[in-house]
Amino acid sequence: MSATELNERAQLLLKNLVERYIRDGQPVGSRTLSRESTMEISPATIRNVMADLEELGFIHAPHTSAGRIPTIRGYRLFVDSLLTIKPLNKSVISALQQQIGCNEDPDKLLASASRHLSEVTSMAGVVMLPRREQVSLRQVEFLPLSHNRVLVILVVNEREVQNRIIQTQRNYSAAELQQIANYLNQLCAGHDLRRVRQTLLNEMDDTRSSMNQLMADAIQMAQQAFTEEEQNGDYLLAGQTNLMSYEEMGNLDKLRKLFDAFNRKRDILRLLDQSLHADGVQIFIGEESGYEVLDECSVVASPYKVDGEVIGVLGVIGPTRMAYDRVIPLVDVTAQLLGATLNQIK
Amino acid sequence: MSATELNERAQLLLKNLVERYIRDGQPVGSRTLSRESTMEISPATIRNVMADLEELGFIHAPHTSAGRIPTIRGYRLFVDSLLTIKPLNKSVISALQQQIGCNEDPDKLLASASRHLSEVTSMAGVVMLPRREQVSLRQVEFLPLSHNRVLVILVVNEREVQNRIIQTQRNYSAAELQQIANYLNQLCAGHDLRRVRQTLLNEMDDTRSSMNQLMADAIQMAQQAFTEEEQNGDYLLAGQTNLMSYEEMGNLDKLRKLFDAFNRKRDILRLLDQSLHADGVQIFIGEESGYEVLDECSVVASPYKVDGEVIGVLGVIGPTRMAYDRVIPLVDVTAQLLGATLNQIK
DNA sequence: TATTAGCACTCGATTTGGGTGAGTGCTAAT
DNA sequence: ATTAGCACTCACCCAAATCGAGTGCTAATA
To answer: B341 to chain A, minimum CA–CA distance in Å?
Structure first.
């Protein structure tokens, strides 16, 4: 049932059919294909070949007297072995580079990447927020709030600022908090956040009896502060509304479910996670993704790297019937550009 | 042309008509209205009254042989003087209170408010981010980055953390930056950000010749850091997808334009701004808003206060044909709850 | 004078049915 | 193995027919 069972002609035919269908969205008939195709075969012969292709599950006819459209399997074979990737125009690349690269702020950079992905593809662009295995703590700062609460500011990975509010046992003065911060900064600066947590646990045992109460409090407090929020990742999405223009999305109910999934984030994140440890562009066609809401969509995704380490995934989401030959290199180059730019401004 | 020109009966009729139309979305005919209405009037009489109402522009017939539907003017009269507000169930209020009030973090609180607005109304919920006139600086911190850039962390309004990256003339050491921060903290802490900017400008003149270069740099740097980003406000939106269920939104193109407006934010913000200086719930019906994308929507909005000062607006966006009698009190109470909760956790 | 019953009429919505055309599968000829 | 020929299928389009909810107007009524 694999491509090897198809002779050259059948493959070429399938390729033409998919290309044609992607181009204008109409079921493709034998006559059209005969005219279109470079090789000269009569419609009748093509019909025979198409019957075979249908039997093998690569194409199917929406109804008796219509042409054929590719099935998921058909698309899969197409992208795996038939597709000829369109090399990107240099000018397109440099344009992307300029528009994405002009960002100082990493957050804005990511947002701009997703926006541009959506713009150049006319589909939805998604960029997973970077998630480093190692989160090194640079500095920590405590500020007292009312009601025994403390505002904690963490600077991690050299330049990212996080803040959270923790509840404390008693009221601390600004001076005390300063002391605590100093202690922790000295103890932890430059180390991985997870390791820091471990260090603190050990420290705690050592300290309990010997050291002064304040340091014990500090550790307690840091414990609270460093407990990572249950943050299973997040992403930036742009151009969802582009998807409303595709007639294959005409079904409002389905579209709504898709948008709800975007808001829920969980499913999309799981899917993107699958590309996190893959190398290069990955493609999920229709129901291949395993998520029902995506069964009429394809996702083209690629990991992006900083320092040679994969830290995130970006991609586009659009109808199964998309111009893979253009989208794939676009996603690819955007991932590389994003990685490179992140490296630069690091 | 005002309500005063309408006798009691006509008003009651209009009220019934609007209520009925809001309930099931079909043009309302004289027969239905005659059966529905408490008063016993024959369809023929009702037809006469309806003809008057139509002439005055309160209702109109989509076509000759259909019933009538309210016009914008009709809705306006309805919400202004005919509507009987449904008093909220105590249990609904306390449920809202619980769900919204259990948030420590102001950001999460706002998000939760918009989410709950959307849930209880089955429409889109929107909460403008608080915008205080006065932004008092609590602390500033500088951290050196590579390439002559500096990460600035500002803590304002006691507990909100902002960060930005600025470009400097030369490379500063951590120690130098610490000195600069100390100087600025001492000079500025507790003051309004705008005033600080002004102070710095004056300081600059004084300093230029006399004080050491570092302080001059500090002021230069602070200048850069305190220049507020062009931030015309922002909002949190939840439940957009709810809008996809209303058949009056069936037009995909229009829906897309609406969603695009949500993303663009500008128009919606301008509209919400109008409620910023109003007292209590405001209602914009259809094209009254002045924004074309909203011409089939109504917006019910209310300002919310902290310390008696209005700092933001929240509301819902839905089809013109919405249950105003339920939505209005819901928006009202949510605004009050949000204000109260913000006050508490301040 | 205000209300109502009666009636002809309007017009959107739905159904019906024929015609068209793109496409098919099968068969027989090449 | 390929192709021409042919009967057949079926979505799509259009026009006509039907239906029914609702109207405005007029004349009768309280």
So the answer is: 14
* DSSP class of B129: P
Using a CB-CB cut-off of 8 Å, the residues of chain A touching B240 are 259
Percent of chain A with pLDDT over 70: 89
Element (H, E) at A201: helix A193-210
Q: According to the model, what pLDDT value does residue B3 have?
A: 44
How does pLDDT run across B259-300, given as a tens digit for each residue? 999 999 999 999 999 999 899 999 999 999 999 999 999 999
Angstrom distance (rounded) from CA A42 to CA A246: 33
Tell me the backbone φ, ψ of residue A258, rounded to 5 degrees. Answer: -60, -50
* A28 touches A68 (CB < 8 A): yes
State the nucleotide closest to B43 in CA–C1' terms: C4
Q: What letter would DSSP give residue B81? A: I
| Range 172-231 of B in CB contact (< 8 A) with A | none
Instruction: Return the residue in B256, B258, B264 with the most chain A beta carbons within 10 A, the one to mutate for interface testing.
Output: B256
Task: State the smallest CA–CA distance between residue A330 and chain B in angstroms.
Answer: 24
B236 in A contact zone (CB under 8 Å): no
Spell out the alpha helix ranges (H) of chain B: 8-24, 30-36, 43-55, 72-77, 90-101, 106-121, 174-188, 193-210, 213-226, 252-264, 266-276, 324-344
Model-wide pTM > 0.85: yes
Specify the pairing of strand B149-156 against strand B124-128.
unpaired
Identity of the residue numbered B121: T
Nearest to A280 by CA among A314, A306, A307: A314
A196-227 core/surface letters (b: 16 or more CB in 10 A; e: else): bbebbeebbeebeeeeeeebbbbbbbbeebbe
Give every CB contact of residue B33 below 8 A, 6+ residues apart in sequence: B13, B16, B17, B20, B43, B46, B50
Q: Where are the alpha helices (DSSP H) in A70-173?
A: 72-77, 90-101, 106-121
| Residue A227 vs residue B267, higher pLDDT | B267
* Residue in B139, B149, B250 closest to A143 by CB: B139
Inter-chain residue contact A159 with B145, CB threshold 8 Å: yes
Which of B107, B108, B115, B159 to mutate against chain A (most A CBs within 10 Å)? B159
Q: How far apart are CA B176 and CA B169, in angstroms?
A: 14
d(Cα A74, Cα A57) in Å, to the nearest integer?
Answer: 7
- Chain A contact for B107, CB < 8 A? no
- Please say whether the beta carbons of B15 and B55 come within 8 A: no
Output the distance from B199 CA to D13 C1' rounded to whole Å: 76
Give the model's confidence band at B38: pLDDT under 50 very low, under 70 low, under 90 confident, else very high: confident
Which residues sit close to strand C, CB under 7 Å?
Answer: A 26-32, 43-44, 47, 50-51, 54, 61, 64-68; B 9, 40-42, 44-45, 48, 62-66
From residue A259, alpha-carbon distances to A25, A48, B257 in Å are: 23, 41, 16
Amino acid code (one letter) for A317: I
> Residue B326 and residue B330: Cα distance in Å, rounded?
6
Position of tokens 């005055």?
B56
Determine the distance from the C-alpha atom of residue A234 to the mean position of all C-alpha atoms in its chain, rounded to a whole number: 9
State the nearest Cα–Cα gap between B257 and chain A, in angstroms. 9
- Distance, in Å, from the CA atom of B22 to the CA atom of B25, rounded to the nearest integer, reads 6
